[in-house]
Amino acid sequence: MPYRAPVDDYQFIFDHVVDLDQVSQTDRFSEATPDLTNAILTEAARMCEDVLHPLQRVGDQNPAYLENGVVRTPPGFADGYKAIATGGWVSISAAPAHGGMGLPMALTTAVNDMISSACLSIQLNPLMTQGQIEALEHHASDAIKDVYLPKLVSGEWCGTMNLTEAQAGSDVGALRTKADPNGDGTYAITGQKIYISWGDNDFTENVCHLVLARLPDGPAGTKGISLFLVPKYIPDDTGQPGQANSLSVVSLEHKMGLHGSPTCVMQYDGATGWLIGKEHDGMRAMFTMMNNARLGVGGQGIGVAEGAYQHALAYALDRIQGRTPIDGGTGAIVDHADVRRMLMTMKADAFAARAIALACAVAIDMETATGTAEWAARAAFLTPIAKAFGTDTGIAVADMGVQVHGGMGYIEETGAAQYLRDVRVSAIYEGTNGIQAMDLVARKLSDGGEAAHALIDEIEAQAEAARSTLPDLAEPVWQASETLREGLDWMLARSDLNQRFAGAVPFLRAFARVLGAHYHLAAALAEGGTGPRSALARFYLARLLPEHEGLLAHATAGTDGLYALSPEDLSA
Amino acid sequence: MPYRAPVDDYQFIFDHVVDLDQVSQTDRFSEATPDLTNAILTEAARMCEDVLHPLQRVGDQNPAYLENGVVRTPPGFADGYKAIATGGWVSISAAPAHGGMGLPMALTTAVNDMISSACLSIQLNPLMTQGQIEALEHHASDAIKDVYLPKLVSGEWCGTMNLTEAQAGSDVGALRTKADPNGDGTYAITGQKIYISWGDNDFTENVCHLVLARLPDGPAGTKGISLFLVPKYIPDDTGQPGQANSLSVVSLEHKMGLHGSPTCVMQYDGATGWLIGKEHDGMRAMFTMMNNARLGVGGQGIGVAEGAYQHALAYALDRIQGRTPIDGGTGAIVDHADVRRMLMTMKADAFAARAIALACAVAIDMETATGTAEWAARAAFLTPIAKAFGTDTGIAVADMGVQVHGGMGYIEETGAAQYLRDVRVSAIYEGTNGIQAMDLVARKLSDGGEAAHALIDEIEAQAEAARSTLPDLAEPVWQASETLREGLDWMLARSDLNQRFAGAVPFLRAFARVLGAHYHLAAALAEGGTGPRSALARFYLARLLPEHEGLLAHATAGTDGLYALSPEDLSA
Fold this sequence. Notes:
2 copies of one chain form a homodimer.
Chain A: H1 7-17, H2 21-24, H3 34-52, H4 55-61, E1 65-67, E2 70-72, H5 77-86, H6 105-118, H7 120-139, H8 142-154, E3 157-162, E4 178-181, E5 187-197, E6 206-214, E7 225-231, E8 233-235, E9 241-244, E10 247-252, E11 263-276, H9 282-318, H10 337-370, H11 373-404, H12 407-410, H13 416-423, H14 433-441, H15 450-466, H16 471-492, H17 497-501, H18 504-526, H19 532-544, H20 547-555, H21 567-571
Parallel strand pairs in A: 3-6
Antiparallel strand pairs in A: 1-2, 4-5, 5-11, 6-7, 7-11, 8-9, 10-11
Helix pairs in contact in A: 1-10, 1-18, 3-6, 6-7, 6-9, 6-10, 7-8, 7-9, 9-10, 9-11, 9-13, 10-11, 10-18, 10-19, 11-13, 11-14, 11-18, 14-18, 15-16, 15-18, 16-18, 16-20, 18-19, 18-20
């Protein structure tokens, strides 16, 4: 089943929905002209369609495995990775000083999205490296940068994130991995890390681990955590991979999906590491990496949504079943109202999620280019929404993709189930979607709701302006934003954070629903209210947007009655 | 991870929510005393907990396979099946004349639910047999009944349903399997059937296939379909399995889940079959079987919801992470608001789905006992809701179960993912949930909405009566039922069925949401408004019930704009 990268969709969203133009008008990103943007999207699309997508089923059917301590990757993955690396797709947004293209995160986000559609398992590898590049650019010494960044940017080496330990998952502060000073400026890292995506491979010269660990004098909790760079092979004086470090892959996990991507248990036995950033300040550096990765994981969900949608649509256009209920129908199941409803839902939600992610990326780019607090706040506010709604959409769309296939959807050979199995983890890793929602209602509202209100103001302003031209579309968006604002104010009035946490997940989803409506309206406005994007917007506003009211009722129920059942009652 | 069958929950629902007492007061079911009911539930619970649940992981890890044309089942499945058969659990509701217990379908439903929690793969086998028993009881000749029913009832033989062909899925009328008269009263069946659950096994003496096929003079479409009984081994004069029939298992499917249950491609090469019911009247007999199976599949979803809930709760009570946000908390993640929200949602929805299924079963029993059209209409109306909401709940709860586990949820060894992979098919087979919803808004409203309005009347009557004692619970149920009635009236006013079909799925879900509220209110009333069931009801009413408004907006959008995107636009 072929995949076609939706270049026109990215381009339309850039031009008419998230205003990439404002980014390319900054000095920092002046090279990101529309022509260059389009050339990059087109070139990446070709690789995704021709080289990467054929690897998707291969990876599922030939899982990565451990052989004598080395991870063996699925057939063809080495070539797929090479195409990504040599195309420069690891480092679209990396600094030119180390070989990157220095282009906007919006472009990286679009390309990551399409690589995710094509083959999610392999995409996770460069995604982790991108986060590492950004962390090192911000926090590493020049000496470290000079050795590592050119190799990471070129894709000759790749990077991983090592946070989780068996007893320290969402609670990173509970980690026990130790870092003992060696006396020569390096540290001896000892401990075990789990869930390390792409912890090893057989196609890059080196694998560079960013490891959270505690110095001997590190206080308990997150305040005592430092970040270390721990390469598989220690670079020699010429910067080439030298002596093997004291680390190993203990085992690979058997996962529900993403079989092509090795998820490693990593053992560090006094491995040599280099401090990145300041002592005890590892969480700050890690958050640089994680915020990047969170948007990236949101993009994974969106990419899978696109892939699953195209896959289901192809089936629905081909599968003949029953009589068509419409005049001039195709005769295939795409004519049936419920199938059409599912496909329209998939397409409308994929658009909404993509627009949110690209709006987040544009905010990051504007923050980078202008350094203003407003853009930083916007980027910070949108990141958990982009992550959670992007991945929830990926899961929901892949699930509908299975359903569109009927019985065939449950048969693995069809490939529909793989999308669902693969994408399911995206709601869990890089901070579960529950953690994202808690971040949204706590840290991201710690400005008193300024960033949130500013966003709702923009939504209302566009809706107000659209009232004269597209009243049928403007009115529901305006109404929904008012309801959302009430929900926001409810949250802000709760000083007890647990009251907010109780409804954080439905609140985040309600916010995403309304944001999605805002971007659909923008698309319709760009079309003058007629055309396929306007039709999709009308579908979304009439059928999907109304969900926000029930979500906000849920969101604002607080902890009232939440703990009314004791653990014994829950078990009864 | 142990499973504990929720015997008290079934008993409570029987006693206080769906009024099983009215069933046991009929002549037909006078034996179904509370004592007997409780004894049966307790006995079945023991088997599920001790014998069947240990097979769940085994079946996933040791899939059924085909060896020299015979299906080999996972280790222990033969013993598990034997426990089901010798316990009489295949035939709780089968007629005593052939060895059945003759007890209410409500009991069968409860026991199927718990077998599904314990091991879904194995449960699918007796579920298919139950449908076959019912079809034969209603439509077979006495000669057929005498040979087959005692063997099916005892579980020595088992039964399957053969509807689907490659080109005939939801459109059963497109089937091509032929039935040619042999001249001796039997027929030669020729064709290929797909997706045949438990099409063969290595632990029953015989496998009896009910096969839909077309006689030489059968008109096109469903009106030309007849039903045939086609045994793997043709019974000899003594009724024992004799000569092998001309049928074979061609292959097994590789599925997303349910690995322990062989899903067969069956080939019939002039296999000897016996007509069941009248010529060209196969669909009617098949619907007897399918209605039974639809409620049963709904029960599969509920059973998996229960299993996944218990599994996730055990993890949440055990897993220490972060600081507890509540006074006197356990310190485990069950204390965290979002985890608690998920667990409460899982429990509240499992209750709602279970009550709906048991109310449907009680309606079937009252139909059986009284023969009144009202009970028949109630049973018919509730069946698609029980099927679709039961399975949607199974999937949603299993999905939340994965999420509660965090990273562990994605690792297969944990078992959380298996619940999700196993139950996913339940929204597809026995008529996709889209087909269920179309059945609800078309055939089940073809009485002009009489059955639907009668049900809403009951909901309102209970809410009215509860106003004086539990106003905080009664009011939202009453309001919701009014909104639902408006949605129902919208549906009834649409003579173009495709207008109804466009919103059938959200309409069914909205109806289930309000029904769930009704049964939660009944539970709270039985407790006098205080106690854990009342607390669960309050949770449901405040947080989950509000979903119905958005669903009804979706449901009543009709085909407006649904087809605004052409196939080319959809592909753009």
